[in-house]
Amino acid sequence: MKIPDLSFWKLWNISFGFFGVQIAYALQSANISRIFATLGADPHSLSYFWILPPLMGILIQPIIGALSDKTWCRFGRRIPYLFVGATIAVLVMCLLPNAGSFGMSVAAAMIFGLFSLMFLDTSINVAMQPFKMMVGDMVNERQKGLAYSIQSFLCNAGSLAGYLFPFLFAAIGISNIAPKGVVPDSVIYSFYIGALILILCVIYTTVKVKEYPPQLYAQYHGIGGEAQEEKTNVFRLLAKAPKAFWTVGLVQFFCWAAFMFMWTYTIGTIAANVFDAPAVLSESTGGLVLDTTSKEYQTAGDWVGILFAVQAIGSVVWAMVIPLFRNHKTIYALSLLLGGLGFISVFFIHDQYLLFVSFLLVGCAWAAMLALPFTILTNSLTGGHMGTYLGLFNGTICVPQIVAAIVGGAILKLFTTEGSVPPEVNMMVLAGVLLIAGACCVGIVDEKK
Fold first, then answer.
1. What are phi and psi of 389, to 5 degrees?
2. What is the residue range of 387's domain?
3. In a domain? residue 3
4. Overall number of domains in the chain
5. Cβ contacts of residue 207 below 8 Å, gap of 6+?
6. Quick one: which of 78, 217, 309, 326 could link to 163 by a disulfide (CB 3.0–4.6 Å)?
């Protein structure tokens, strides 16, 4: 039996909750460095605060994939994990931006924020992965491209909303500055609204989507009785993984390391290069750092949200261009090359509006990263271990982020001269070089089914 075609709205419903999940992810990626810098983190240490989220992701994702492969209950196969992950994310989103508001010392606030970030990223990953798995489970090969395009659209629409929230709240008069060590209300309220939208979207998908029962799923995916009873482990599955798993994974390494540098260092780059944020002596290191209590720094933080929103718009537009190319590898390499040029151009631009061009180009790379790796991989997979493989494939997203987080501070120190503010813009140039390296590696990707 073949999986039947689904209507557009059924494909839409499968991925609609992704809109809410991506709002949460966008708020995290655009504001975490801002939050921890506001709490008092040194720029050279910012990347270390990003280690725990991908570390938890690489541990949790394969577990969620393997467990959901074997889960069958009245609520479905993947949806129970989606709902639990979203519920935890909502709770943490209400706590994280208040890390500096509970009267704790700087060190205690940092620890509280760090653990909140760990739980937030873990829960977002738990909620995000089922959407990719449900497309693999419920959509036939002919419609899979459309299904992932819908998911990409909803992903970028959610990103756009999440990135704009702090700017919009500041525009309507909600305070954009706060005392030292306290996160501004514009950011706090953004997390509150994002949490509300997340749970409403996930409830919608939970109510509207009915996953295939075990027997029908087995028939659609050609799984016989012996295969259903097969006992295996992740090491055996990795040994049998298709070549696409490893070749696309290599490209992913360069891409996700680049975007980790973007998320970590864009605010410092824009604050220094565009808004001329003042510098102060760091209480912890005695070196010069940007004054995170200044109006210029917080304005830069809001503007980064606008730039990330421009990136999301570029992703939506470029996602419509990608299907026009029959050769996945050609458009994959071109997209990453454009993104790399966008990152490098930030070094030369000091006008806040001209940066729109840079981040539109970055959006091209982001669109390709969201769609093409999963399209290539899921088309190369068959059988009952789809969720486990997608969970393992998440390692190609988490590992490069962990590496980038570990080495980011040390690399930034290499560029920092005594008595000067750390030149975070150099990390953006490095991100561009990494994307170009990824584009060069696309040539070895194996698309065979």
1. -65, -40
2. 8-444
3. no
4. 1
5. none
6. 309
In sequence order, the 6+-apart residues with CB closer than 8 A to the CB of 11 are 139, 143, 146, 147, 150
* Residues whose CB falls within 8 Å of the CB of residue 300, separated by 6 or more in sequence, listed in order: 267, 270, 271, 274, 275, 277
390: in domain: yes
Residue with tokens 């992810």: 25
Query: What is the C-alpha to C-alpha distance for residues 228 and 201, in angstroms, rounded to an integer?
Result: 33
pLDDT tens-place string over residues 1-25: 788 899 999 999 999 998 999 999 8
Residue 290 host element (H or E) = strand 288-290
pLDDT digits (tens, 9 = 90+) for 104-153: 777 788 888 888 888 888 888 788 878 888 887 888 877 877 887 788 88
Q: What angle do CA 168, 171, 172 make, to 5 degrees?
A: 95
Is 65 inside any structural domain? yes
- Answer whether residue 211 is part of any domain: yes
User: Does residue 259 have a pLDDT over 90?
Assistant: yes
Domain holding 216: CATH number? Answer: 1.20.1250.20
Cβ 46 vs Cβ 409: under 8 Å: yes
Closest by alpha carbon to 310, among 342, 336, 344? 342
List the beta bridge partners of residue 73.
76
Tell the burial category of 293 from Cβ atoms under 10 Å away from its Cβ (0-12, 13-18, 19+). Answer: middle
